[in-house]
User: What shape does this take?
Amino acid sequence: MSLLSARAVNRATLARQLLLERADLTPAEAVGRLAGMQGQEPKHPYAGLWTRLAGFAATDLTHAVHEREVVRATFFRGTLHLVTKADYLAFRGTLTPVLEAGLKLLGDRAAGLDQAAVVAAARKLLAAGPLTFTEIRDALIEQFPEVNDRALGFTTRMLVPLVMVPTDTRWAYPANARFTLAEDWLGKAPTPDVVPKDLVERYLRAFGPATPTDFQTWSGLTKAKALFDASELERFKDESGKILYDLPDAPRPGEHVDAPVRFLPEFDNLLLAHAKRERIIADEHRPAVFTKNLRIKATFLVDGRVAGLWTADKKRGVATLTLTPFGKPGKRSESELEREGTALLEFLEPEAKSLQVVTEQR
Assistant: This one.
C-alpha cells in the first residue's frame, strides 16, 4: 500500500477542487465537477467559481441558474447547496435519510406534528405556484394551528423536494427567495432510487483521496465503510497510517506541484468535506475560521493551506479587501495576495471608484 505524504494529499484535493490552476469550464460543468457548492448565502458560489474558473463572469452563473442548468436547494447535510440539475435529480433521493434525520433537531417543537399530513399540505400549496417560506408557514399554520410554526416550515424544507426560484437580483436570489416544487421547475421529479455508491464516486472525484468518515461528514449519510469496501478503489496510507480510498484514475499530481494563492468564500466546501481537515487547515487556526455560531469565514490559501481570513466592503465608492493573516507571509506571497485580492475586488465591486488591499494583524 503506497504512502501519500500530507503535502501530496493536499495537492490531490486542490487539483480536484480546481485550485491548482483555473479551469476552462462552464459554471454548470464546474459545479458538477465540484459535486456541488455550499450556497448558504447566494453570492458565495459566485466568489467560489471566480477563484476556480478562467474568465469567469457573474453573468455566466446567473445565466446557468435561469436556464435551470444548476439549482439552489436543500441538499448535503440539510444545508443550501448549488448543484447541477442532473445531480439534484439523481441524488435527492439518496439524501432522503439525511434530511429525515434532520427533523430530530426539532426536539419538543415537533409535538403534534404529522409529517405526512404536513408534506401533503405543503405540496398542495406549492402546486399553485412558488412561495416564500414565510408564506408557506403562514398557510400551514392555518391548517395546523396546534403545531409549532418552525416545525411546519422545517418539515417542508427537509421532506419536500424544493428548489429556489431565481430573480434579477445581482446574485440571482433575494434574501427571501421563493421556493417551488422541484418537478415543476425541472420538468421531472427526483429519482426515488437510493444509489449511495454512485455518490461515493462523485465525492472522491471532488474531494479524494479520503476516508469513509470523510464521506459521511460531507454527505451526512452513515455506514459508508461498506460502500467504500464494495467499490473498486485504490488504497493508500497517509503519514499517520490512516487508510485513504481513491479512484484509480483520479488526479494525484504529487507533492512538488506549486499551489497558487487563492481566495475562498465563506462556507466553501473545501473546508467542510472532511472529518479531519488538517489537509487544508492547521488545527490551531480552526477556531478563527469555524465560529461558535456555525459560520465558516472567508479564507485565503498560501501554498495550498489556509493562511488567513479576508473580508470585503465598499464605503463611499472605495472597495477594500482586508486580509488577516495567521502569520507573516513572505514577500512573494504578499505580492500574490495583493494581485489576486485586487482582481477579486474588481469582481465583487465592479462599480467601485477605487480599490485597496490592506493587511491587519490578529
